[in-house]
Amino acid sequence: MSWSLVKRGLELCEEDQQATKSRKVEKKVTAGKASRHQREKKAAKQRKIGEQRQQEVKDLFSSQKQVTSALERYRQNVPKDRTLDNIKLLKKIDKKRTPKEYVEKVVSQHTKQLDRRGGVRELPQSQGKKKPEETSVFSDEDFEKLNKEWLKLY
After folding, report:
1. What pLDDT shows up at residue 135?
2. CA–CA separation, 66 and 76 (whole Å)
3. Torsion angle of alpha carbons 6, 11, 13, 17, nearest 10°?
4. Distance (Å, whole) CA 70 – CA 18
């Protein structure tokens, strides 16, 4: 009984091998008869792959040719000095000053907003009024003595 099972297994394997061979033969026959569209598509794909390889080689050699010195790379990466350009622009702005009436409007609006928010703003004192003189507990003689003492230490 076991011999018959082995025999049957071998027959099944042979059938499978013959079936795969026949499938391969069918594929070869149909592969040889590829349509015009398929051949063109395959040729285009091959051309594209070839162009990509050429581009890679070209990029590789072009990067090797362009050896730049560290000084040149530094010069390329250094930010440009735009001081003179900025000064020119500031001079232009200075020439085109806004009229006083606009400035006063802006300042008044700003003070109104501060008042609404509850902020207290001291208005600049007019030039006619004098500031009260600051008084000190120390006299000039005291300051002179202090200076002399400090000078002695050094």
Report:
1. 77
2. 15
3. 160
4. 69
d(CA 47, CA 41): 10
> What are 79's two structure tokens?
């930010």
Per-residue exposure over 23-57, b if at least 16 CB sit within 10 Å of its own CB, e if not: eeeeeeeeeeeeeeeeeeeeeeeeeeeeeeeeeee
Q: Do residues 114 and 107 touch, judged by C-beta distance below 8 A?
A: no
Residue 120: per-residue pLDDT: 55
Cα radius of gyration rounded to whole Å, the chain: 48
DSSP symbols for 10-48: HHHHHHHHHHHHHHHHHHHHHHHT--HHHHHHHHHHHHH
The span from the CA of 48 to the CA of 60, in Å, is 18
Other beta carbons within 10 angstroms of residue 111's beta carbon come to 13
Mean pLDDT of 79-86: 86
